[in-house]
Amino acid sequence: MFEHTLDLIYLLSAVMFIVGIKMLSSPETAARGNFISALAMILAVGITIATGDIKDFTWIAVGIGVGAVIGIFASQMVQMTSMPEMVALYNGLGGAASALVATSEYMRQQSGLAPFLLVVILLSLFVGALTLTGSLVAFAKLKELVSGKPTIFMGQHLLNLVLILGAIGLGGYMSILEPMRFEYFLGIAGIALVLGILVVIPIGGADMPVVIALLNSYSGIAVSFTGFVLSNNALIIVGSLVGASGLFLTNEMCVAMNRSIWNVLFGGFGADAPSGGAATPAGVPEGIVKPYSIEDAINVLESAQSVIIIPGYGMAASQAQHQVRELSDLLEKNGVQVRFAIHPVAGRMPGHMNVLLAESNVSYDLLLDMDEINDDFRNTDVSIVIGANDVVNPAANDDPSSPIYGMPVLNVEQTRTVMVLKRSMNPGFAGIDNALFLKDNTMMLFGDAKATLSKLAEGLKQ
Ligand code: NAP
User: Fold this and answer.
1) For residue 111, what pLDDT is reported?
2) Has residue 327 got a pLDDT over 90?
3) Which residues are catalytic?
4) Rounded CA gap, 26 and 39, in Å?
5) Which residue, judged by its Cα, is nearest atom 43 of ligand 1?
6) pLDDT tops 80 at residue 278
């Protein structure tokens, strides 16, 4: 009877997780979705603690206390642009937790282990440890604590293969012959920790958000194995949900960049080009850069009927979302049709632009996905590109030698006039130049996006 009640509550929290994740897909419902998922987590953890065979709550209380303080502190302090780093750390900690639970369960066994239990303990250990070090390397690359460039050496893939086979060999030996060989257990943990580093170092900084989505999926898979270790249905379900949604997200990001997951993991993208957003002097494509004044830009905007705003990473970096909203309101007041074109990988994390524009209360109806708006650029008077670069680079459409060739981009160059707000001719995250900035119909407005937008708004008010 009691077990059934426990399972029912776990089932309820699993349903709440699914509903919560579903609600994250729209900015209108995302906050509520997050709240429902948090509630489901409290329910699942609470019922596990309350009904578990726990003699002493001291360490649990300490863990909850320390975790809550760090969580509250981090959520207040972290900048929106640093969110991928924070997610990388969370993934790593999730992996570490799974590996530690697997270790303690292994050590708790006095006399042998059933083969199934041993296998899931080893899988939980392996995936958890790999996720830990992989996530730490991803964090270090994004934070630029280490170079964002891919680290590639001869025999790298062969070494990875040997390590994987080594881990399988040790695991197989333990499962069939000697389960209680702790030195083999440690050997598998060591291999997984090294492998986590080796699989992430050949991936460039620009691809780190994709890797983080993948590692997020791994952390879910590790949690799911831990659920089998502890015979806990909630962990199995939640781990599978995280594992599956992480895989979907990874796939969506790859599709948005027209890359396969294999190309991301093994392609060494960015090995020859600067990556990780490092501002480097650009070897500019042929053409003349045409800087314009604020007055020129105001004149163009005053005679426009239709405007599409394209936000990118630079809007986030300069925190210009409120000024973007102000400009949009002023244009609408002047009778201009204003819409926003949102590229799926604009910024540094999925949904980055939506979150920032929601923060400044831009109406959701004005935010259009790339597919919805890409055909409309040719009938639009002005595109205002605010700190976007790679996602509007025409080389993706017309230069087969470009590393981003084939990536779907916003066709802003088809607009009658393109205004680009950025500080310099420096490239974006992919580290490649952008011929859009040299086109005849492009007006470069150099300067910090927030300052430029404020000046434009001032001018339009007069
Ligand atoms: P981007 O290509 O990285 O370009 C951002 C531009 O913003 C830079 O050229 C920079 O030029 C400008 N900028 C920076 N600070 C600024 C400021 N304060 N004011 C004005 N401009 C500023 O950005 P994007 O077009 O949004 O493209 C995103 C990139 O990230 C893509 O390559 C995408 O593949 C990659 N990525 C994104 C995700 C994701 O989930 N969103 C995941 C994986 C990879 P200046 O320095 O000259 O100002």
Assistant:
1) 72
2) yes
3) 390
4) 19
5) 209
6) no
Tokens describing residue 237: 């379900």
Kindly state the tokens that stand for 189. Answer: 């943990």
User: At what angle are helices 156-176 and 115-142 packed, to 10 degrees?
Assistant: 150
Tell me phi and psi for residue 306, to 5 degrees.
Answer: -140, 140
Confidence of residue 313 (pLDDT cuts 50, 70, 90): very high
Paired residues of 419 in beta bridges: 384, 443
Question: In what order do the strands lie in the sheet containing 417-422?
Answer: 367-369, 337-342, 306-311, 382-386, 417-422, 442-446
What is the rounded average pLDDT for all residues in the chain? 90
> Helical H runs in 109-207?
115-142, 156-176, 182-200
Taking CB atoms within 8 Å and a gap of at least 24, the contacts of 178-181 are: 179/112, 179/113, 179/115, 179/118, 180/109, 180/112, 180/113
Query: What ligand 1 atom has the least distance to the C-alpha of 312?
Result: 26
Q: How many residues does the chain have?
A: 462
pLDDT band of 432, cuts 50, 70, 90: confident
**pLDDT digits over 12-40, tens only?**
999 999 999 999 888 789 889 999 999 99
Nearest atom of ligand 1 to the alpha carbon of 450: 19
Q: How far is the CA of 391 from the centre of ligand 1 (A)?
A: 8
The pLDDT value given to residue 264: 77
Q: Is the pLDDT of residue 64 over 70?
A: yes
pTM of the model: 0.78
State which ligand 1 atom lies nearest to the alpha carbon of 349: 40
Using CB distances shorter than 6 Å, the residues near ligand 1 are 206, 209-210, 253, 257, 277, 279, 312-314, 317-318, 345-350, 352, 387-391, 421-424, 426, 428-430, 448-449
Mean pLDDT of the 231-242 span:
92
Judged on CB neighbours under 10 Å (0-12, 13-18, 19+), 345 is buried
Among 92, 86, 206, residue whose Cα is nearest residue 148:
206
End-to-end Cα separation, the chain, in angstroms? 73
Q: Whose CA is nearest to atom 47 of ligand 1?
A: 424
Two structure tokens written together for 341: 């074109």
Find the mean pLDDT for residues 406-423: 95
Which atom from ligand 1 is nearest to the alpha carbon of 390? Answer: 2
Q: 30 C-alpha to center of ligand 1: Å?
A: 24
Mean pLDDT (whole number) for 381-391: 97
Please tell me the distance between residue 306's alpha carbon and the centre of ligand 1 in angstroms.
Answer: 25
What pLDDT, in 10s, does the model give residues 174-203?
999 999 899 999 999 999 999 999 999 988
What is the spatial distance between Cα 420 and Cα 310, in angstroms, rounded to a whole number? 9
Hey, what amino acid is at 56? D
CA–centroid distance, residue 311 to ligand 1 (Å): 9
